[in-house]
Design a protein that fits this description.
This protein is α/β, with parallel strands linked by helices and 418 residues long. The protein has helices at 11-25, 35-45, 65-72, 86-94, 108-122, 134-146, 157-166, 189-197, 216-225, 237-262, 272-289, 303-310, 312-329, 353-368, 393-409; strands at residues 3-7, 29-32, 49-54, 77-81, 99-102, 126-130, 150-154, 168-169, 172-173, 175-181, 206-211, 229-232, 293-300, 335-340, 343-349, 371-372, 377-378, 381-386, 415-417. The strands form five sheets. It has a five-stranded parallel sheet with strand order 2-1-3-4-5, with helices on both faces. The two termini are 51 Å apart.
Length: 418
C-alpha cells in the first residue's frame, strides 16, 4: 500500500502536514520525529514509500543529512524547512530533491500538500521529450523522472507525431505533456505544435516549448502557435518544476470541469445532455451506412415506493447500483446515460436484431439479482427497445419509450422489443 514518509520534529507541523496530505490524497502518512526513526520506517516499509517530505532541522541529523539519506534510499523527496539559504539550496539539489518549501508563509502547508498531490499523480502520466540532441533529451528526461513522470523520447517532430498517434485513445492521448525544442532539422518545434493542435487541444495535451536562443518574440510565437508555455534554456530546476506543475494542474482542473458537465452527479453515468452530444453522431453514421442500431429505455419498477418505504438514501443506493450494473454490461461502443429520475437510455451501434433480446435480458436479469437493506429489498426493471432506423434520434427514443410503456403495462420486469 502506498505511503508517504514525513520526517518532522515539530509536532504542530507534523500534525498539520499529515492532515492536509491525507485530505488531498487519501493515502496514509507515516511520521518520524527524527532521522533514526525514519531509518527504521524505511527498513520496515521500503517498498510502500512513494515519497518523502523532509525537515532539515532534526535533533539527530546535521545539515542536509536527511536529504542525503532519502537520496541513498532512492525515495523521491521534498524539503519542508524553516531555515533556508543559497548554500542549502545547492546542497539539497545535489541530492535530487524535487522541490523545497519554506515554513515562512501561512499557506505553506497547503502549497506543500498540492505539490505532494501533483507528484503522486504524475506517476500515472507520460511526458514526451522532443529534441534532436540526445544530450538535451537526457537532461530534460532526468528532471521529468525526478517529478515521477513516465518518459518517452523523440529525436524529431515526425517521430513525436508517430508516438502521439500510437498513444491516442477515444478518451484522449496517453501522453499528457510534450516538451519540445524549437530548433530542429526538418520540422521545427513550431511546426510540431501546429500539427499537435490540429488534433489535441490545449486543455487535453499540454505543450511547453524550449529554446536556448529565447527572446520575447520567440516566446510569443510559441504561444501563438499553440504552446501552453515557453521556457528559455538554461533554466532553474525550480522554475521548470513550477511550469510543469502549473500546466498539469490546469489540465486536471479542466478535466474535472468536463467530468462535472458531462456526468450525472449521483451515479457517475453520462448525463442526458452529453448523451445527445455523443448519440447524435452515432445515429447519423448508422443512417448513412444503413447499419444496425439499437436504442433502449430502461426504467426501475416501482421506484417511488422504494423512496416512500425506505427513504431517499436507500433510493440513491438503488440508483447507483443499477447504474453500475448497466455500465458494467455495456460494450465499449455503446453509450448509456441517466435520463432523469429512475430512467436510463442506451444507444448500441452495430447491434444485430437477433442479438438484442439476449443482450437486454442480461441487463434485466442482473438488475433483478441486486438486493438492499440486508436482503429485505430487491428491485426489477422494465426495458423497451427498437432497432428500426427512423427519421431522427428523437423518434427512435420515443419509439423505445413506447415499448417501455408496453413492458410496464404487461407486468413489468420484462423486455419488449419493437
Amino acid at each position: 500500500m502506498d505511503k508517504i514518509l514525513l520526517v518532522e520534529d515539530t509536532r504542530l507541523f507534523s500534525d498539520l502536514v499529515t492532515r492536509r496530505i491525507e485530505d488531498v490524497l487519501d493515502i496514509p502518512v507515516v511520521a518520524a520525529p527524527d532521522l533514526s526513526t525514519a531509518r527504521r520506517i524505511v527498513d520496515e516499509m521500503r517498498d510502500d514509500l512513494v515519497l518523502a517530505v523532509l525537515d532539515l532541522t532534526l535533533p539527530d541529523a546535521r545539515d542536509t543529512e536527511v536529504a542525503e539519506f532519502a537520496h541513498s534510499e532512492r525515495i523521491p523527496s521534498i524539503v519542508f524547512t524553516g531555515s533556508f539559504d543559497k548554500q542549502t539550496r545547492a546542497k539539497i539539489l545535489a541530492f535530487d530533491v524535487i522541490d523545497y518549501v519554506t515554513k515562512d508563509a501561512p499557506g505553506s502547508v497547503d502549497y506543500l500538500a498540492s505539490i505532494v498531490r501533483r507528484i503522486y499523480r504524475n506517476r500515472k502520466l507520460t511526458a514526451l521529450v522532443v529534441d534532436d540532441s540526445k544530450t538535451a533529451r537526457k537532461f530534460i528526461s532526468k528532471h521529468l523522472r525526478q517529478y515521477q513522470l513516465n518518459i518517452v523520447e523523440a529525436e524529431s517532430a515526425d517521430h513525436a507525431l508517430e508516438i502521439l498517434d500510437e498513444n491516442d485513445t477515444p478518451d484522449g492521448n496517453n501522453v499528457s505533456l510534450v516538451i519540445t525544442d524549437f530548433h530542429m532539422p526538418g520540422r521545427d518545434g513550431g511546426e510540431l505544435i501546429r500539427a499537435i493542435r490540429k488534433r489535441w487541444p490545449k486543455d487535453k495535451l499540454a505543450v511547453i516549448g524550449l529554446s536556448a536562443m529565447g527572446d520575447s518574440e520567440l516566446s510569443a510565437r510559441f504561444i501563438k502557435m499553440g504552446a501552453n508555455d515557453f521556457l528559455t534554456k538554461p533554466f532553474l530546476p525550480e522554475e521548470f518544476f513550477c511550469r510543469i506543475t502549473h500546466n498539469l494542474d490546469m489540465i486536471d482542473q479542466l478535466k474535472a470541469l468536463r467530468h462535472a458537465a458531462t456526468r450525472d452527479y449521483l451515479t457517475g453515468m453520462y448525463n442526458r445532455r452529453f448523451f445527445f452530444d455523443v448519440a447524435s453522431p452515432i445515429f447519423e453514421n448508422a443512417k448513412r451506412r444503413n447499419a444496425d442500431l439499437m436504442v433502449a429505455m430502461v426504467d426501475i419498477d416501482h421506484f417511488k415506493s422504494v423512496n416512500d418505504t425506505y427513504g431517499h438514501d436507500i433510493g440513491d443506493d438503488v440508483l447507483k447500483s443499477v447504474a453500475r450494473t448497466l455500465t458494467g454490461f455495456t460494450r465499449d461502443t455503446d453509450v448509456i446515460a441517466r435520463f432523469g429520475g429512475e430512467e436510463f437510455c442506451l444507444i448500441a451501434p452495430e447491434m444485430e436484431p437477433a442479438a438484442m433480446s439476449d443482450y437486454l435480458e442480461k441487463f434485466r436479469a442482473e438488475i433483478s439479482k441486486l438486493s438492499f437493506v440486508d436482503g429485505a429489498l430487491s428491485v426489477t426493471a422494465s426495458i423497451g427497445a427498437t432497432n428500426g432506423l427512423m427519421e431522427n434520434l428523437d423518434n427512435m427514443i420515443g419509439h423505445a419509450d413506447q415499448m417501455l410503456y408496453q413492458a410496464k403495462e404487461t407486468g413489468r420486469d420484462k423486455v419488449v422489443i419493437a
